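1st attempt posting a full record on here, be nice pls
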Amino acid sequence: MSGYLIGGLLLRQIRNGKTAFKNFMYFCIRRWFRTLPNYILILAFNVLLYYVLYHIVIDDIGYFIVFLQNFAVPHPDFFTEAWSLSVEEFAYIIGPLILYILLLFRKNNSKEKLYIVMVFIIILAITYFRIRYHNNHGLESFETWSHSIRKVVIYRIDSIYYGFIGAYVAVNYTSIWQNYKKRFFNIGMLIFIVTHTFIFAYDAKPNDFPLFYNIFYLPLISISLLLLFPVFSNWKTGNFLKKQITSTSILSYGIYLINYSLILLTIQYFIDVESVPVFMKLILLLVYWVVTFYMSYFLYRYFEKPMTDLRDSKFIKEKFN
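the predicted structure (as tokens):
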């Protein structure tokens, strides 16, 4: 979904003729104002909480600040949900950078065609990296695969660029995107169901089927989800449901950052959730969700939105746009 949204913004920028280096810098700066302030703040809270609860100072915190903690190695066992944000941040940088280089050397080519060339260069490069990993490493368990491939930038960044393909088709082949949406949806569901039916029917584990997991599984999931987008991007909802979806989406980044490490793990530190009665578990679940949403709301209103609004300041626009 991130790739679909960001790819659409990048295509709009290309169509508006904003392909100078400063324009691509402005594109990245807008993404950074949206993601970095919240991330750095919650990272700091996680470091402080980890020290208070466990009396441990996190080493190499600088890697987290520049999103290198899982660039080519497994993500550390700290602030673990941040792995996917690293994937997104590098996607915001690498794609526009490659596109800018292509535009420098292929000035007479269609800029939108170079966009799709950039996408396939990245997908093929990441596929190559996964093949190299497959040829040089063994897999002992699902956890090994998840930490060593699924959560590592150089093996996962292609998932964002499948969304870029969706944005390209939606913009340039709108009739196909809309007229074949049900067919795409059915194919996507079929790929998803068949893939997981195989996994459950054969109890397929990464150590037994390393080729499938290392090379094919993650792209199949990305493609299957991408094929669902035409239906959902044209989905019409009632005003009430639309309002609820919009409200939740506004808070979603804050929810993503705080729900696990700050809230859930803190609850589990003080309460042995597995040993309490079912009724108490339901109470804890309710508390977990209420605290998560309220903290996300305050984070958005008093920090995230003010920081995001800075990207539309006169100085930033005059300097980079």
